[in-house]
Amino acid sequence: MKKSILSVLIAAVLLFVAACGNGSGSIFKDGIEEFISNTYPLYDTIASTENSDQYARVYRAENQDIASVADSLQGHEEPTEMSEENEGKQIFIYDQYFVTLTQSEDNASNTMIEVAEEEFVRNNYSPGFFEGYLLASLLGNIFGNNWSTQRNQTCNLNPERCYGGYNSSGSYVGKTSTPTIRGASTNRGGGTGSGK
What we know:
Helix content is 33%, strand content 18%. The protein has 196 residues and is α+β, with helices and mostly antiparallel strands. The protein has a domain at 29-161. β5 (97-103) and β6 form a beta hairpin. It is globular. Residues 1-21 form the signal peptide. Keywords: Signal. Residues 174-196 are annotated as: Disordered.
C-alpha cells in the first residue's frame, strides 16, 4: 500500500515538473517582462491616460540592433504573434504584453524596447501605430471587433489621449518631461516626441 501511494506521488510530481517545463508559463523561467527588465536598463515610462497605475516602460539596449534584440527575446520566449521588422520597428505580442522594438533616434546603434500591458495598449495606443505591422483582424480578436473604430474616434476628438509609440511626435498627455534612466546616462532632452 505504501509503495503504491509513493509511486502515485512520484508520478504526480514528475507530471507537474514536466508540465511546468513546457511553454511560456514555466515557473522556472521569468516571463518576457521580467526578462527585459532584468536584462536592459529602464530608460523611460509613459503613463496611461485611463489608469494612473498603468505605464508603458521603455528600456534601452545599447549597441544592439533590432535583429539582435529580437533574437534575444525569442530565445527567451517565443511570442504568440510578431510583425516583420519594417522601417526601424518590430512588434511582438506575448501573453498580456506588447513589446515594440524601435531604432533609437539618438543613436542608431541602440534599440529602444517598449513593454506595454495589453490593457495599456487597449486604452492608450492609436490604431495607426500598428498599420503595416499587425492585421486589424488580429487586433480585433484581442481587443474586440470595434476597437479600431472606437479608438480612431477617440484619437480624432482627443489626439492628446492617443499614444503613437515612443518615438512619435505629438502631445500625448502621458509623456514625461524627461526620461527616467536607471543604470545609464543620456544626453536626451525632453520626453517622448519633445521638440519634434
